[in-house]
User: Fold this.
Amino acid sequence: MKKLENTISAFADKSHEPTDPQPVTDFSSPAAAPATECDVLIVGGGINGCGIARDLAGRGWRVVLCEKDDLASHTSSSSTKLIHGGLRYLEYYEFSLVRKALQEREVLLKSAPHIMWPLRFVMPHDPSMRPAWMIRIGLFMYDHLAKREVLPPSRGIDLRQHAAGAPLKAQYKRGFVYSDGWVDDARLVVLNAIDARSKGAEVLTRTRCIHAQRGADGWVATLEGPDGAHRTVRARAVVNAAGPWAESFLRGVAQSARGEALATKSLRLVKGSHIIVPRLFDHDHAYIFQNPDKRIIFAIPYQGAFTLIGTTDIEISGDDPGGARIAQEEIDYLCTQASRYFDKAIVPADVVWTYSGVRPLLDDASGDPSAVTRDYLLESNTTAAPLLSVWGGKITTFRKLAEDAADEVGKMLGQSGAQRPAWTDGAFLAGGDLSAWIGAPKRPDDDFGRFVTAVQAKYPWLDAKVALRLARGYGARVAELVGESQALADMGAEVAPGLYERELRFLQAREWAVSSDDVLWRRTKLGLHYTPAEREQVAIWLQAHATNNNDTVEVEVS
Assistant:
């Protein structure tokens, strides 16, 4: 501790503070002028807002995005972290949604193999839940509703012989295996924001839109920054991607030109909670469990040492969806349902961490929160200056949602898709192009394995676990993070186990990180692996080295 305090003091005394800001670019592209005039103002820095900003900026539109908190600090970092079609939605006849999501799985897996990878799911068969023939039909449809190139098909297994049967109760003798994908959800949002910035968008975090006045041919918005200062932005169009706050934005912040109501839809806010417990099994498959209430929960390998179990569906009300927290009843529910399958009972005392997110689902008058559609609706309003509101959606379909939204915004601004065509299908996300390290891509999962080997060979002085974590988190951008470092000492002091000053400066300068929560729970998942004292040490360092997180600057560590 004393050594680190001395290092912090030394850093404060040296001229290693960030240089003049170079906003908008992903390091070296020419900086654009501060955006007080733009084509599109996007309100909301979750997956939909950042995905739309990326797509629009890539088509040449001038974009400003504001987020009142950190990127992905609410719903988009609180998912079950799956890239999936949604097998259970077939029971609700959501064939279009499932097909759309299945089509997106492999597009996304190929775009960022460092933060997304294939995952096999095991469904133990419980005859009291659904008959085997029904499951087989559902899995056949799941396999064939969209083309697969990377993911293998489903099949039946004997749990008495398969490794996935070992941690389960002996009564489960047969099961089914199918494919979906895993994603680091918070990093997915950040990578979209980085791409958006590299293409000219201005991304403002901890910046609240406190007023937006609509005129006949444009919007005038007032943004309040983290220091309380106000800034005026004039935009030709506004995209409302505020997630759980989308309806309240239209009912309070946004003001119409002629006094007409801007909110024509209603949201149902459904809380989904998850628990994390010490690792329950050693193999690399996940589980999907059917429950007596006809819901399902997942048990997923998480961060090596843990198992992630979720989720619940609890409808909530109130003005502060950001304050949602898991209830004891939800913890009890998840423990009870998982214990129906695992041989070792799971009890609340086993829970080491929890998180809850609020899904902003479009109200479709369904009585069961689990049955409310997860599909999205884009509502365009052109009675005056263009307004596009995003209702609903799920993380798997964010790219398609963003593409559709960018098409619609283009139409509202008078330019068709042919003039500013879609481009993200087949494009890499930030750090996803590994070709400079491994040559032409083949299979995303195999490509990443080869990439890790290359990273460890280039930086043999990095601990193997640290090298793997950096490869996972940053992909090809690991070269920018490590820079010219030739030895571990070049990475700066070790602020917490495996976390060095150079990475913290990188996260501040390039990824809008400000607080320890930004770093430990969203940019990395190191908070799970640290003691409270170690987490506090990260917070102390960040406070001692506070920067303007809305600026992009050079990383300098000595």
User: Anything to note?
Assistant: The two ends are 19 Å apart (CA to CA). Residues 95-111 form the longest helix (17 residues). The first strand starts at residue 37 and ends at 43. DSSP finds 15 helices and 21 strands in the chain.
